[in-house]
Amino acid sequence: MKVSTQKALTVIFGILSFPFFAAGTFNGKAALKMEKMPNLEAFLAPAVAAEIPTSYPYEAVKAQVILLRSRCYEKLDQGTALGTVIGELIQSEELSETENTEMDRMCAMAVGETENLVLKYGGKTVNGPFFRTGNGMTRSGRDLFQNDQYPWLVNVESPWDIDSEEYMNSISFSPEKFAETLEQQEEGSAEKIWGLGYQEMLLEGTLSAEGMAESIQITGTDQAGYVTEISVGDVVFAGESFRKIMDLPSACFSVQVVDEKLRFLCKGLGHGAGLSQTGAAAMAEEGKDALEILQYYFPQATVEERYRVNGS
């Protein structure tokens, strides 16, 4: 993001924050609560623009806005300070490498048209995660987090993902690079992971890709086909942890040996739970609106007004 834009955001934040803090000083907590909405809404559009593909159709943009607003309000409901939440929105925009005036305009319009709408489950605002492209089936909360604390996240078929150019990706590592990447996680990890025998072969450069592949075993997958547990030598990793360590596109992968290298063949991009951006875009192109898209990917949740307009 350009420096001038960052300065503008800082000025805007200051201007918008003054009424918030002044209201709290002169009118108490009730006024403070009422001021949260306009302060937060002003930062949603640029943050959403940083989260979505530039070719995203409008109804999919609206769905994304509702998810981002829901994420912010869930944090506020859990006690996170408003300034912290807004700071995270600004940071997300700063991470964006693209500037698109038309997308910015569309995001601003989507924020206005979806004002006050959030994703709810059991009467509470909840976070609806999203990812770029899946393997054809979304993951449930149980799949991703290995607990039952996210009942609004269930498995949903997302057939549009299979036709995406991003559906299949592969990353290859030499045995040495693969070992080096894992070793960087903690001191002495080579001995911990592979034992002294493997460590000596690594140092001598005599460990083949086939030999390294033999040390890798996928020991658990979830209902959607994503790896939940993988053992490398004597160490067991959670699937998502391993994906992040190795910087893989997704945790839905298989391991092969190709041209004396370890190849991880991955399906999809991202963690795979919640809304598929590829699927949302396809549904929008088919004529589905934002509410229909969210209802499809979050069938256990509902899109509702956060509060009633009359304040009751």
Write up what this structure looks like:
This protein is α+β, with helices and mostly antiparallel strands and 312 residues long. It has two domains: 3-131 and 276-305, no CATH class; 168-267, no CATH class. Helices cover 49% and strands 16% of the residues. The protein contains 14 helices and eleven strands. It has helices at 3-27, 29-34, 36-41, 44-51, 58-77, 82-94, 101-113, 141-145, 175-183, 189-204, 209-214, 239-246, 277-285, 290-297; strands at 117-121, 124-125, 130-131, 168-173, 216-221, 227-232, 235-238, 253-258, 261-267, 275-276, 302-305. A three-stranded antiparallel beta sheet has the order 2-1-11. A three-stranded antiparallel beta sheet has the order 4-9-8. Strands 5-6-7 form a three-stranded antiparallel beta sheet. Helix 4 (44-51) packs across helix 7 (101-113), helix 5 (58-77) crosses helix 13 (277-285) and helix 9 packs antiparallel against helix 10. The longest helix is centred in the first third of the chain and has 25 residues, at 3-27. Residues 1-38 have low confidence and may be disordered. Keywords: Signal. Pfam families: SpoIID. This is SpoIID/LytB domain-containing protein. It comes from Candidatus Fusicatenibacter merdavium. InterPro entries: SpoIID/LytB (IPR013486), SpoIID/LytB_N (IPR013693).
Question: What descriptive keywords fit this protein?
Answer:
312 residues, alpha+beta, three-stranded antiparallel β-sheet, 14 helices, 11 strands, 16% strand, SpoIID/LytB domain-containing protein, SpoIID/LytB, SpoIID/LytB_N, signal
